[in-house]
Amino acid sequence: MISRILVPMDDSEMARRALEYALENHPEAAITVLHVVGEPSLMGGAATALALEEDIEEAAEEHSKAVFEGARELAAEYDAQITTEVQMGHPARAILNRADDFDAIVLGSHSGSLVDRLVVGNVAQKVVRQSPIPVIVAR
């Protein structure tokens, strides 16, 4: 029985669908929404801007607010409570590092820009291949 589910989320429609799947199909499960704030890279972007902040952890929490608010609103539609967690680092690695505390991972099939997928690789693919627990990929 699946009683603890990890749902990695960004602000994409696919991530929203993953949470929706978890809420619909596992209404009794404890759901944790994980938002991973990327590491600074040579490609720049939001992670590099984050690295310039005085308090990186506080900035990461602030960066995650919109994702978590959307997740809570969706959970409320299902009369469900979720917990939230923010991590910093490479998304696939952060997800896999948390996997042992859950019974399953539910994630969207893809998100991010073409550059993100080419440089970082497909997060869902990495998680599916390396996860020690079942992974459900929502489309």
TrEMBL record:
Superkingdom in the source lineage: Archaea
The record's annotation in Pfam families points to: Usp
Q: Which residues cross the membrane?
A: none
CDD domains reported in the protein's UniProt record: USP-like
Give residue ranges for domain UspA.
Answer: 1-139
Tell me its family. Answer: Belongs to the universal stress protein A family.
**What is the name of the protein in this document?**
UspA domain-containing protein
